[in-house]
Amino acid sequence: MDWKGLIRCDLSFGERFALAWRLAWRIALIDVAVLSVAFLFLGTRLNDVFVAYSLIATLVVYPFVVRQVIPRRYEQFRVRVLSDGEETEMDYTQSFKVAWLLGWRSELLVYALLLVISPLAQLLPFQLSSLVPKAQEAPWTNVVGLSLLMNLAGLILWPLVMPGMLSKRYNGFHLAVDRNRTAPRVVKTASRGKQRV
Questions:
Q1: pLDDT band at residue 100, thresholds of 50, 70 and 90?
Q2: CA atoms within 13 A on the CB side of 59
Q3: CA 24, CA 12: separation in Å to the nearest integer?
């Protein structure tokens, strides 16, 4: 395993955050739309299908969004999918593997953060659970709020796990970042501030 690849990256943090934003808002939009339609038909039973929708989102929505966002040409760079040294279009299996990697690695970071935050939350003079409406009282708010919270966590954590996503050698393919020659990259220098290279 390339441990340096988990940290070193051809994309700046800002570029990774921009990719994470493109992923997060699309997923959040689909989540809210699907859950709102489900609420119209199911009402208070919405919570019963949230787990089923989470599975469908993992298998369908996340790979679809990854395939729309990751292998595209952006102003400063583009991410290519290479299979046996040849550039290919990202297929479902490849997009699922990338989405799965982003998901489980960011989940590990969430659990690590919870280990730190949980003891601190007990020092608060109120219960955090009192801020969240009960599922029976506000099913739509509860489920959509949880979905938006998960996407917010992704927006914050995905840029941290993207170096590993880009450096990983998946079974049968890997991702490569190419800098666009027409768009100069802005880098910071210690003496002169920003400089184009």
A1: very high
A2: 6
A3: 18
Place of tokens 């790979």: 63
Residue 23's closest CA among 95, 93, 94, 88? 95
How many angstroms separate the CA atoms of 50 and 93, rounded?
A: 24
| pLDDT at residue 128, rounded to an integer | 47
Here the tokens at position 35 are 């859950």
Geometric angle at alpha carbon 165, from 30 and 34, rounded to 5°: 10
Close Cβ partners of 121 (under 8 Å, ≥ 6 residues apart): 128
Q: Which of 176, 194, 183, 129 is nearest to 11 (CA)?
A: 176
Model confidence, pTM? 0.75
Q: What percent of the chain is predicted at pLDDT more than 90?
A: 41
- b/e for 142-174, b at 16 or more Cβ within 10 A? bbbebbeebbebbbbbbbbbbbbbbbbeeeebb
* Nearest Cα residue to 62 out of 94, 87, 108, 39: 94
Q: How many Å apart are CA 21 and CA 158, to the nearest integer?
A: 9
Residue 66's closest CA among 149, 146, 182, 170? 170
Dihedral sign, Cα of residue 144, residue 150, residue 153, residue 159:
negative
Three-state DSSP string of 46-64: HHHHHHHHHHHHHHHHHHH
Pair 105, 7: CB distance under 8 Å: no
